[in-house]
Amino acid sequence: MPCNHRFQANLYPEHKLKYLFVGTFNPEWDNPNGNNANWFYGRRTNSFWNIMPRAFDHPSLNNPENRLNPEPWKQYCYENSIGLTDMIETILDANEQEHQNQIINFLDDQLENFNDIQLTDIINIIKENSATLCGVYLTRYCHTLNENGIFNQRWLEIENLCNQIGIHHSCLVTPSNGYMMPRDEKVELWQNGINNCE
Length: 198
Prior knowledge:
Blueprint: E1 3-4, E2 19-23, H1 48-55, H2 64-68, H3 71-79, E3 82-86, E4 88-91, H4 96-104, H5 108-111, E5 117-119, H6 122-128, E6 135-138, H7 150-165, E7 168-171, H8 183-193
Parallel strand pairs: 2-3, 2-6, 6-7
Antiparallel strand pairs: 1-4, 4-5
């Protein structure tokens, strides 16, 4: 059966946005190693909740309590007009017995091997928030995307729309701990890449 996004019901932020952070996909299928998220970027191997708040000169929200109960993360996003979403909503031609390893390894190039993918309507999210959006940010570097893959093609569509309606956009260094760079350095790079409209 298809593999839906783990937070499919939350892919379309309902509050007004100043900032939209865009990822790729978080599958609903559990990883046997237990490294599963309770909300966006919530895996223990991801430092988003350290880097993102600090990029806005706020304290880190990266702690074990929030990983178990992400309500403080959700409240932070609401209070600061921040939206989180991912490009893929559902992989329709995925089969858990056949494709589990391919999907839960979190390597995006593996996801691009599927043929029937339902994308999140990020274009509409941007249009609905065009009056208030200060910036749209991909949470990985653009040059790491497969030039002919769905993620790069989707990001180009997002960039083109942002250029048309005058919204800042940027590709940020990944918050994943798999990319070995000191957190402080990542925070500085995010600060340089984000159009802080406060």
